[in-house]
Structure formats: C-alpha cells, structure tokens
Amino acid sequence: MVALAPPPTPRRLFIEFARMGLSGFGGVLPFVRRAVVDRNRWLGDRDFVELLSLGQVLPGPNVINLALMLGLRFAGLRGALAAFAGLVMVPMVGVLALMLLYEHYRDVAAVQRMLTGMTAVSAGLVLSTGFKLAQSQPRTVRGLMIGGAAFVGIGLLRWPLVPVMAVLVPMGLVLEWRSEQLARRAHAPPAPTAIDAPAMPSSDDGIDAVPPEAKEPRQ
Q: 52, 187, 204, 207 - which has most CB atoms within 10 Å?
C-alpha cells in the first residue's frame, strides 16, 4: 500500500484545484483523480471513490461537491473555500475570455474540427477514469450487478439519472449491509452448547458438591 502524503494547506489546495480547473477541458474529474490520488497521494483510490460516490448523490455538480468535501477534510472550512475558489473562480476568467473568442470564430471550419477532436479526447479521459475507479473496487457479484444496471439504465437506455440513482443507491446499501451481516455471522465463534459445558460434580456421584474449603470446621 502506498503511503499517503501529509494533508495539504489551504494555499496548496487553491493552487492544485486551480490547476485542475484550467486543465480540465471537457471534464475535470480525470484531472481531479490524477492530482489527488496519483500525483499528490492525498487519498487512496478507495477513499476517493467513496467521496465521489457521496458527491454523486448530493445535489449540485459532483466535482464541486468533491472539491468542497476534500477541502473540508484536509483543512477545514478554509480548505473547502480555497478548493472551491481554485476550481471555479480561476477557470471562470479563462472561460469568459474563450467564449468571446468562440463567438467571433465559431463559424471557422478549423475551429469546428478542433472542437470535434477535443470531444473525442474528453470521452477517452472519462472512460479511462471510470476504468481506473472500477479497478479499485472489490470484485463482487453485487458490485457488478449494481454497476451493470447503472450502465445499462443510464448509458444505453437513456433513463433519467435521478430515478435510476433513487433505485440503485438504496439497493446497493441493502446488499452491502446484508453481505456484512452474513460475513459477521460466518466469522462469529460458535455458542457453547450443553454438551460442551463442563459437568459439575454432584452428590449423586458419591462426591460432595461443596468444596472442602467452604465447609465449616468442626468444633
């Protein structure tokens, strides 16, 4: 297991999340995972996936939720504000400048081809990040079932995200809870039975059941 680095300061969080936001053309999540898990080693893959899953079910953009939770975990309220400002405020200036240029040059064929190529790169980054996150999860039948159901419902059938999550998240929690209960019962020591309990001597066997020390001395 790779040793984790010390928690970052609010200044470090601001710089790193600003770097992620400025690099994340087509999606920030792959860059967030690479910065948090691979480059800075602030979290392991398992902890990162748990925070990302929590950010998915909470209202709001999942990457912003993830930035706020990471900042709060590492440096408290100042860390959460620093991560949010770095991820949102700094790239906002660049986005506004690029939008002005795009409005002026959007009909140019070279610009349209460039955007098409960036879309393909973004899709590849998302798929690569999803594959890496899936590798960090335990390979169980219930995990494959929930993940496969989410992929089919959202990716193939194009069902709305909220109803699918409303069904699959409680189902996954129930399956994990049930699996944990079964594992505890399997590893629990067996309860002693009447056959295993040691037999106490009785007066019927010809032995005095009262120990000698407990008897009163004769006068």
A: 52
